[in-house]
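Hey,
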Amino acid sequence: MNQSSPNAHAVFAEEVSGRLSQLAEVARSGGLDEAIDLLVASIRAGGVIQAFGTGHSEAFAMEIAGRAGGLIPAHRIALRNVVLRGTRVVDDLMGAGLERDGSVVPELLDLTNLDPADVFIIASNSGVNSSIVGMALAAKERGHRLIAVTSLAHTNAVDPKHPSGKRLSEVADVVIDNLAPYGDATLTVGDGVGVGAVSSITAAYIAQALTIGVVTKLIDDGEVPPVYISANVPGGDEHNDALTARYEGRIQSI
């Protein structure tokens, strides 16, 4: 529905709050428990959570790995690693070409210190680009469990781009719907211009809901959860350094 400018902000707030309420109910009713159990099992086995997302979905991986209040045994796999630590050139990062290039997956995994206990969590709104599906397939081929965060409304409405003909949602062990609509925009303004993208907001909520679930389960079972403290509070660096040392070489910050 087309919205006037004064009304657009109110409508967007409703679109966001409605989806967050739905996700809260999913979490409350146990809809995230299967994913939480996979993450807890990995941590208990000495594994690391391998988080991957491209484009705006990289923000999801940043919510999972390397932030205050987040789990320490988590690593963000980033496309830029093939430039910063690999052999690709900076120009390869321009545009969307790299995220649509499945050949980048072996390069990324060569730069990642994997353990059999690691669990993958991959976010992609469309769930069809070749680097995303290629990473999902590679993780499964190596025996890792896989959690997907994607828009079911969008991914089921578009054709897969990976040569396998598969979508991320069709490869994962557990699929979490980010509830974003097809095309991501939640409203239209002016002459039918779509705005109000919501996938980054719902994905961030999902990331934090999973983290809360993992930490709560570990505490309930009498374990001490390995969680980052902000480096900007007293003792934060010392706390973080002591715990990150357990995963040296496995949780790079870039």
